Amino acid sequence: MSDHDIQLLESQFPAVSGQAFADARERVLASGQSVLQSEGGFVIRVFPDGRKEVVKQIEPPTRVKSGTIYTIR
After folding, report:
1. Which residues lie below 8 Å from residue 43, measured CB to CB, with a gap of 6+?
2. Does a structural domain hold residue 64?
3. Which residues, in sequence order, are CB contacts of 26 under 8 Å at separation 6+?
4. Residue 67 forms part of a structural domain
5. Are 41 and 57 a contacting pair, CB within 8 Å?
6. CA–CA separation, 41 and 37 (whole Å)
7. Confidence band (pLDDT; 50, 70, 90) for 71?
């Protein structure tokens, strides 16, 4: 596999993985189970009927700039 082929596959990853998560979420809801998601600084439980329940408050997401290197200590 060439470098070009690898770069092409890597460029497709965000869209493909996003669709995979969306499909999995829909399958879980269709099976009658709830899913957890983050929304507006909260963890929310979403039920198959569309009802939402706040589970807990969380810190807001950290915005990052592409290509930035962070050191975790």
Report:
1. 36, 37, 54, 55, 56, 57, 58
2. no
3. none
4. no
5. yes
6. 10
7. confident
In a domain? residue 69: no
Number of domains in the chain: 1
Predicted TM-score (pTM) above 0.70: no
Q: Which domain holds residue 44?
A: 3-57
Q: Residues with Cβ < 8 Å from 61, sequence gap 6 or more?
A: 38
Separation CA 29–CA 31 (nearest Å)? 5
Position 5, amino acid: D
